[in-house]
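Regression check, 3-methyl-2-oxobutanoic acid case 280:
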Amino acid sequence: MSVTGRKELITPPGIVAAKGKLPIVCLTAYTTPVATLVDPHCDLVLVGDSVGMVLHGMPSTLGVTLDMMILHGQAVRRGLKQALMVVDMPFGSYEESPEQAFRNAARVMAETGCAAVKLEGGEVMAPTIRHLTARGIPIMAHVGLTPQAVNAFGGYRVQGKGTDAERVIRDAAAVAEAGAFSVVLEKVPETLARRITGEVAIPTIGIGASPACDGQILVVDDMLGMFDAFRPKFVKRYAELAQLAGSAIETYAREVRTRRFPGPEHVFAEARQTTEGGSS
Ligand code: KIV
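Current build output:
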């Protein structure tokens, strides 16, 4: 059952209203078939810029473009009936100014049909979040480990340890106060996630941030065992689809080489004339 308890399109206010009630279920999707699979089970589906690493083999999310996000967003839109669709703003498409962010976010919403966009950054992005939300663009914020800043962080490290906790708390408070409808907390210690979740009025969506958050998100290819370039500690593998696919492909290759595929059931009989003059 979704957070609204009904089979209906979930909206950003619906996600806010879920805080403190049912845990909010989120996954990423990048294609129509996967969106169709996750939609009946998820409250929110994120077209994450992780698409660059997961589907395009990029070394980080930094090379992802607005056009890529729009193309994948359009594909996901076709697979969703109920879940709230959020599209990630890629690196370089929103940081320059609130005006740049509005122009690109409006394009993403108009061309994909998503209901909200996500952007990374805390205090520094608060004026932009305020600008966008005041103009009708619902924002999912993202603090803690923000992968677009991987070079500044010096790697995909846990954020908010020790005295650094205050920085992450300030970031989460700033984006909530600026009007974001939810905030992703990535790779932060449990005590910090619990404190932020208790202090901010909007739902916290954790990824590597413990069950203390109001909801959880994972990269769908990670939890299905389809993406092996990274194996973060916070990912639970619910399936091993890459292994399954690998052995299916191996069997196909062997059967082609030994002429066991195609079998008689895959072969068309001799063409015969139909009444329409075509052949079957
Ligand atoms: O890009 C992404 O997939 C994300 C999340 C998993 C939070 O930002």
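Comparison notes: The CA atoms of residues 132 and 159 lie 27 Å apart. The beta strands are 24-28, 44-47, 84-88, 116-120, 139-144, 182-186, 204-207, 215-218. No diff flagged against the previous build.
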